[in-house]
Amino acid sequence: MRLAVFGATGISGRLLVQQALAQGHEVRAYARNPAKLDTTCPGLQVVPGDIEDLPAIRQALAGADAVISLLGPTGRTRGHPVCRGMINIITAVRQHQAR
Fold first, then answer.
1. How much is the pLDDT for 58?
2. Phi-psi region of 97 (alpha: psi -120 to 50; beta: other; left: phi over 0)
3. What global pTM score does this model have?
4. Over the stretch 68-86, which tens digit does the pLDDT of each residue have?
5. Any bridge partners for residue 22, and if so which?
6. What is the C-alpha separation between 68 and 53, in angstroms, rounded?
7. I need a labelling partner for 60 at 20 to 30 A (CA). Which of 33, 54, 79, 90 fits?
8. Long-range contacts of 44-51 (CB under 8 A, 24+ apart)
9. What is the spatial distance between Cα 58 and Cα 64, in angstroms, rounded to a whole number?
10. Is the distance from CB of 9 to CB of 17 less than 8 angstroms?
């Protein structure tokens, strides 16, 4: 299965990516800071981007069978970027008809 993962650089996200790869899934990790992930792992594609960038999110979801979001507030941001990001992810999921 081809998975698109948002929030892949957090503690839970990195664990999910590791488990998905170990089970043979292809993972496309959308990350604001790609340096937090091991980009040499077979089956892992890291896509740099911001959760407020709808065109980049659409591109990251292309070909995905399923989308997993582990986004959460970090306490270092103002406003509600996770809410805006989830709206963008849901919009892109509906357009790509992913699960």
1. 93
2. left
3. 0.88
4. 999 987 666 666 678 888 9
5. none
6. 17
7. 79
8. 44/17, 46/8, 51/6, 51/81, 51/82, 51/84, 51/85, 51/86, 51/88, 51/89
9. 10
10. no
Token couple for 96: 């790509």
d(CA 28, CA 62): 10
66-69, strands of its sheet edge to edge: 44-48, 26-31, 2-6, 66-69
Name the amino acid, one letter, at 17: V
Phi (first) and psi of residue 52, to 5 degrees = -95, 0
The position carrying tokens 């970090």 is 74
Sorted by sequence, the CB contacts under 8 Å of residue 40 that are 6+ apart come out as none
Q: What are phi and psi of 23, to 5 degrees?
A: -90, 5
